[in-house]
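@channel sequence for tomorrow's demo:
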Amino acid sequence: MAAVSAGILLYRRRATGLEVLIAHPGGPLWASRQVGAWSIPKGLVEEGESALVTARREFAEETGTEVEPSTGLDLGSVRLRSGKRVVAWAVEGDLDPSGMTSNPVTLQWPPRSGRFIEFPEIDELRWCSPDEAALLLNPAQVEFIARLKEQLDHAE
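structure tokens (generated this afternoon):
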């Protein structure tokens, strides 16, 4: 069975339009990758844990900020090329990306070297327009932006 991750797409409305918060993964594998490498803050749903609880926990771990996803918009799920399913909620809010604190990850690097390095799971958060997010996000997650825009349009 494919893994399931859950996450939160934080959004805000500005005079210039809608902005969404996306995250760049830390570590040497992602250091030089931009287009298609970004993600919403998310993580694996643990056995016995609800996706909503996971989304909230992972957002806090990866950004250092807590949000309440039960007040958000259900964006459904998408399937990544890897087969993993990602479930997401959109929550309106604001945070200063420069104040981000992300949990550390340990990885053997280079592979099979016996050396381990530690780095933040997320090395950058960025507010961006839906168009910029569509360029930077993992291609499957772009659907979350479309669903958010559709729900916001119907709410107005």
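heads up for whoever presents: The chain has one domain: 4-155.
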